């Protein structure tokens, strides 16, 4: 085992004073302090490892470390000591985001070393390598890839093995347009530039594409990016930054032919910088940061900030949609359950008998007449079908009016809508019709007003299925 550092001890002590009002029961989060992007997600030597962008000393973004948790089953997690510190010349202002690969049993991290050159925003970003043979202690090997001439923003390497080579996609900002650059290597240390997989052609596609990911699923090559600087458009792109996917074909010469243009992955308030990895049985799993840059974070005052989304299995369907569904392993968390017979509520609100955390609901759209009907989460949020606007809406409420906004998706064109919902202490994730859409948002119900209730306004709502579970914790010591 690794000796705990000052930073680890600081986090353990700070954890004792965390206010747990919104602290997650079944989402990965730091014990205290700040986290952002998921990094280095991998299954290797019998364990799942998740790392995260971490500032241990305060619940605000600061010089980035890599926090670390492990799991044998992708459900129950254990905190490990911090894996990477910003302590070398080439990463002294932050070990920024990156990925992990299995190099003959050696856990190998490729991440961005960030250096602030002055206080005017000039930076140097290089891709660096660190390795571990025991999965706990890491040795840094320094930079392996430098930015193209004149490019400052060059970060978030995602590395994978295919076609008998190592490949790396890196996000870059070139002339204030985002792009994803592809590199190739035989040994993980010498990299050659292959091509630009895709790039923004106008400023409304983003000035920087962060956290790229590139993988094949259901015989389609999916390019994930997190663009900064896309303006809101109607109901879309409402958050400061977006995360989305393109679909196409990765050609033999390394180039990428885009067939389906950018679509948002999730439609909630808090989903950013997702990264994917391959599970032990070959499934493609994705995890995002359940937070948004520059949004107010009420939990900062409570000693922690940031969590991951639930792991989601990713598929691609014949209608050109990335499907994201919560991994089935999460069923292990289920404890007490209730199933309600099909029922109808009319002009009423019905409080549920317990605080369920997982709900599978089916609303009969065709036979419901209410103008708005759905589920309330105390005084923090309402998830409802708006039958006039024909949208599924998540409205959230907070004393901070900047948080007091809604997110919504068009109602699917069918007579019923299936919702698979996870409600943690301070978040809600809604998966619609087997993952065709999802809405992920942090919510802030007051402690004495968290109860769940079904409601129907000005008419009736028909609920044909309601299976609900309480869930246990993913961390043994909680
Ligand atoms: C995305 C991001 C990355 C960067 C990291 C820094 O959220 O800005 O581009 O590597 O966070 O913490």
From TrEMBL:
Native source organism of the sequence: Commensalibacter oyaizuii
Entry's localization field: Cytoplasm
SMART domains (UniProt xref): Glyco_32 (SM00640)
InterPro entries assigned to the protein according to its UniProt record, in alphabetical order: ConA-like_dom_sf, GH32_Enzymes, Glyco_hydro_32, Glyco_hydro_32_C, Glyco_hydro_32_N, Glyco_hydro_beta-prop_sf, Suc6P_hydrolase
Protein name as it appears in the record: Sucrose-6-phosphate hydrolase
PANTHER family, A to Z: BETA-FRUCTOSIDASE
Entries under SUPFAM superfamilies matching the protein: Arabinanase/levansucrase/invertase (SSF75005), Concanavalin A-like lectins/glucanases (SSF49899)
GO MF terms held by the record: beta-fructofuranosidase activity
Enzyme nomenclature, EC number: 3.2.1.26
